[in-house]
Specification:
Layout (H helix, E strand, L loop, with lengths): L1 E7 H10 L1 E2 L3 H6 L2 E2 L6 H8 L6 E7 L7 E5 L5 E5 L3 E2 L3 E6 L13
Antiparallel strand pairs: 1-4, 2-7, 3-6, 4-8, 5-6
């Protein structure tokens, strides 16, 4: 099962240079990296990234993350994947841009 991280492109490029993604400021503050499932990613984009351009959607195979990945309740009690360690760049399946449409909604190509 793929899970997804939405991140500003510049922050992701820094992670690529470093070889790992330690998280966005919200992740660092919370102590884990926030991810979304395919069913959750559009709502995550609308709620936390509204109007932001230059974003990437990063796909990761959930099972490859081992025990550091926890499924925990968040919005409305839904279970969200949270990673309690840095994400290694070699764990990434793919990245895709999330252009902002004229309607203000991000294009999400899963």
């Amino acid at each position: 099962m793929l899970i997804y991280k939405i991140t500003p492109t510049a922050l992701w490029r820094e992670a690529e240079d470093k070889g790992q993604f330690d998280g966005a400021p919200v992740d660092l503050a919370d102590g884990f990296i926030h991810f979304s499932t395919a069913e959750q990613v559009a709502e995550t984009a609308a709620k936390h990234f509204a109007g932001q351009g230059d974003l990437l959607l990063v796909a990761i195979e959930a099972d490859a993350l081992g025990e550091a990945l926890k499924w925990e309740p968040s919005r409305g009690g839904a279970l969200f994947p949270h990673l309690y360690r840095p994400l290694r760049i070699d764990e990434i399946q793919w990245t895709r841009s999330m252009p902002l449409g004229g309607d203000g909604i991000h294009a999400i190509d899963l």
